[in-house]
Amino acid sequence: MKYTSRGIQIPYSKAEIILTILRKHRIINVDLEFVRKEKTLVIPVNTTDDNLRSLLESAAIDFDYSVDVFAFIEKEKQPKNLFEAVNNSIPEHLQEHIPKAYDIVGDIVIIDIPEEILSFKFKFGEALLSLFPSIKTVYRKASTVSGELRIREIEYLSGEKKCVTVHTEHEIKIVVNVCEAYFSPRLGHEHKRVADKCKEGEIIIDLFTGVGSFPLHIAKSKAITVHAIDINKEALKCLEKSIKNNNPKGMIIPTHGDSRRVIDTLPKADRIIMNLPGRAHEYIDVACNIARPGSIIYFYQFVSDSEPLEEMKKILEEKLNEQNWIIEEIISFEKIRESAPREIHACLEVSVIPQHK
Ligand SMILES: C[S@@+](CC[C@H](N)C(=O)[O-])C[C@H]1O[C@@H](n2cnc3c(N)ncnc32)[C@H](O)[C@@H]1O
After folding, report:
1. Considering the domain boundaries, does residue 279 fall inside one?
2. Of 21, 43, 73, which one is at a domain's C-terminal end?
3. Which of 176, 213, 231, 274 to mutate to test the pocket of ligand 1 (most atoms within 8 A of CB)?
4. What pTM was estimated for this model as a whole?
5. pLDDT tens-digit series, residues 291-303
6. Ligand 1 pocket: which residues have CB below 6 Å?
7. Has residue 9 been placed in a domain?
8. Distance 152 CA to ligand 1 centre (A)
9. Backbone phi and psi for residue 109, each to the nearest 5 degrees, phi listed first
């Protein structure tokens, strides 16, 4: 589209000097394209003639220029966010449902599109690809996380048809199969927080490792042995590739199977990670089997946001008592993220000891 606007015409060879002055005073009209006319350049400006002339006089410009009204072409507008990228395709009364957030896993985006605007799903696919040049594939969440393997159905929307990507968390490259293994890009801080607590020479057991994010963080630069267990073979295949890619200083030992069934093959642990929220309490007997007095447990749960620490402590204490173990010390309590309205995913870190009778 053509527009007329005030502009300044200068010799092309002087463009840099003038642009520096105009930018400093923020008077370039950034919505319009510059015009090149033979050996001159016409720059659209947002100011009055008088203001522009006095500015150029005070800058002691010693070459010819002219200030006038010129014809310009409007710049093609690039959307700044997802809303701007799709709102032209979605009726106004439905635009309130356009999601503000989405998960980026490596070069794959996974978006949750509400039912009300699901018929526009492919628009989202194209929009996300054009918003982020580094993104190769877009999926949408087609179910909640469920089942023993904690995976969700995802529906392909656009881009390259692939499931495997490499996600970077604090410089660690994690291979993720988004179609066949659990992974949340929202746990990066938690993986690092726990890893930072682990000490050289320790033995760590991650009972529900998924693609092995905790072990990769923990073993990255410390001589620590981490046993990484998961019932999902695909998740462990990812971990095996990540171990090769990251060349960790410590040792990661992936073990496929049900944690309950493989514990006989494991040593006693200094720290036990139990990130299976919703079901971790069912495995406290397993944790007690591989604990020694003073071992530290990272116990994850979904709890209500009203008194989360008390709720978690109660669940854990009850299960420990059934095994004749008790909490020796509460070391930390971390709220990780909101998992549902009025519900949080949290971690209680405790040291445990056997109960003296
Ligand atoms: C919440 S996800 C893992 C999260 C992972 N620790 C992380 O931080 O990214 C839970 C994992 O537990 C695994 N799982 C579920 N039941 C299991 C069991 N009985 N034994 C071993 N792994 C199990 C699932 O396959 C899934 O990968």
Report:
1. yes
2. 73
3. 231
4. 0.83
5. 999 999 999 999 9
6. 148-150, 182-183, 187, 208-210, 213-214, 229-232, 235, 258-259, 275-276
7. yes
8. 13
9. -105, 135
98 and 35 in a common domain: no
Q: Last residue of a domain, which of 23, 47, 73?
A: 73
Q: What is the DSSP string of 99-157?
A: -S--EEETTEEEE---GGGGGGHHHHHHHHHHH-TT--EEEEE-S-SBTTTTB--EEEE
Domain hosting 23: range is: 2-73
Residue 91 sits in a domain of what CATH number? 3.30.300.110
Cα–Cα distance for residue pair 15/40, rounded to 1 Å: 9
Q: What is the CA radius of gyration of the chain?
A: 29
Would residue 170 count as lying in a domain? no
Tokens in use for 115? 């039912």
Q: Which positions ≥6 away from 18 have C-beta within 8 Å?
A: 8, 10, 43, 56, 61, 65
DSSP letter string over 72-104? EEBPPPPPSSHHHHHGGGS-GGGGGGS-S--EE
Kindly report, residue by residue over 184-219, the tens digit of the pLDDT.
999 999 999 999 999 999 999 999 999 999 999 999
- Tell me the one-letter amino acid at 226: V
| Residue showing tokens 């093959």 | 265
Other CB atoms closer than 10 Å to residue 203's CB: what's the count? 20
Q: Are residues 97 and 208 in the same domain?
A: no
* Distance of CA 259 from the midpoint of ligand 1 (Å): 9
Does a structural domain hold residue 154? yes
* Tally of structural domains, the chain: 3
Residue 261 to residues 157, 207, 233, 240, 258: CA-CA distances in angstroms? 39, 11, 15, 21, 5
Distances (CA, A) of 292 to 64, 225, 325, 352: 85, 16, 10, 8
Q: Where is 61: in which H helix or E strand?
A: none
